[in-house]
Design brief:
alpha/beta, 11 strands, nine-stranded mixed sheet, 17% strand, 386 residues, two-stranded antiparallel ribbon
Length: 386
């Protein structure tokens, strides 16, 4: 049995700050129809379905009960992964490689505009005995980590502001981005502090949207009329769940997940990867994640690459050409899948004005956000692995 798995169809909606006239079902249906048309496949030919959703965000328990209709998954195997969409891709890969299914659909969406008190929901992810009674806003965890990270590495506020400028400027060329903007470092540094040293402009804003991907085994993918993009490797990891025991200066979850993905993809040097789409929920996280992925030995090197233009869209190692979460918007569990959409478009040569001249291997990395230490890495390639 072949271990090769390809993405043969992608469907997605534009990210928007709010979608008052559309339900999550309508967003998901639109994305599904586009994905099936892209893959030239009918819903009844699909063997298994995966939804990535958090019941607390949806306001509904056992959430996979609510997505079969719009995906065409009636009377088919289906389950929910309470994680980011990249975990859903790993799930689909395991199903296909084990022989359980030949084709698997992965779906994730965000209706973040429906959440009136999102920070209250984040409270439920904090320890109920030691942390929750303190009554602090969960985003303060990011501010604490940022403070530790900056002090350990010598990185300054100017560098975090430069990440915001780069990503929101990149989003100007992305028609599905919710928050494209021409911004200057001064604009960022004049933004109010959310919690020192984290400024409001350095925090990604939520957005609504949906993504559906169709994955298939080698036999099915090779027969697809759409050129498949191959899953070279996938890794996921959860670091320490408690605030008191975690490593505050490093993203160990990303480091561990990357090691697994690199091993599967037979990548010995991260420089073999042509473009990166990494989590930038907070601006400092992009720099921290690049170091964790091994692209740079230490965060200070990531800063020098940023200053030299190396991580710009036309630089040697483009990072977040899509605009990242800062430019596209933070799409809850669909955030990682929007990064995969960008990689697939780039590897197919369909990214329009954002198209990179050299795009054969790409990496997508996700983080589930505060207060978690949960992340995943997926590596995609335009050529079938040997």
């Amino acid at each position: 049995m072949s271990d090769r798995v390809g993405i043969i169809g992608i469907g997605y909606t534009s990210l928007q700050a709010t979608t008052p006239l559309r339900s999550f079902k309508e967003l998901t249906f639109e994305a599904a129809q586009k994905a099936y048309a892209d893959a030239d496949i009918r819903f009844n030919e699909i063997d298994s379905f995966v939804t990535c959703a958090e019941d607390f965000n949806e306001g509904i328990s056992i959430f996979d009960e609510y997505t079969p209709d719009q995906l065409g998954a009636m009377q088919k195997p289906m389950h929910t992964v309470t994680q980011d969409g990249l975990h859903g891709i790993a799930d689909a890969v395991m199903q296909i490689r084990s022989g359980i299914a030949e084709t698997v659909v992965v779906e994730a969406h965000s209706k973040a505009s429906n959440l009136l008190t999102p920070d209250w929901l984040l409270d439920y992810a904090t320890d109920p005995i030691y942390n929750r009674p303190l009554g602090f806003n969960p985003h303060a965890v990011a501010a604490l980590e940022m403070n530790r990270f900056l002090n350990q590495t010598g990185i300054g506020a100017d560098h975090c502001a430069a990440v915001v400028v780069k990503n929101r400027t990149n989003a100007l060329a992305n028609p599905i981005a919710a928050y494209p903007l021409t911004v200057t470092p001064t604009n960022v540094k004049s933004s109010p502090y959310f919690a020192y040293p984290l400024r409001e402009a350095e925090m990604a804003k939520h957005a609504d949207g949906a993504v559906v991907l169709v994955l298939a085994n080698e036999t099915k993918a090779s027969k697809s009329p759409t050129k498949p993009v191959w899953v070279l490797g996938a890794g996921l990891a959860n670091d320490s769940p408690t605030l008191e025991s975690r490593e505050w200066g490093k993203a160990l979850y990303a480091e561990i997940a990357a090691k697994h993905a690199y091993k599967q993809a037979a990548i010995e040097d991260s420089r073999q990867i042509d473009l990166f789409e990494v989590d930038d929920t907070y601006a400092y996280k992009e720099l921290q994640h690049l170091a964790a992925l091994g692209l740079y030995r230490e965060p200070a090197e990531a800063v020098r690459a940023l200053e030299s233009g190396e991580t710009q869209a036309r630089g040697k190692t483009p990072v977040n050409v899509s605009g990242g979460a800062l430019g596209m918007g933070l799409a809850l569990e669909a955030a990682g899948l929007y990064r995969v959409v960008e990689l697939v478009l780039q590897l197919r040569g369909q990214a329009g004005p954002r198209q990179l001249p050299r795009a054969k291997i790409g990496l997508a990395q996700s983080w589930r956000g505060v207060p978690t230490t949960s992340g995943a890495v997926v590596i995609l390639g335009s050529e079938k692995p040997a």
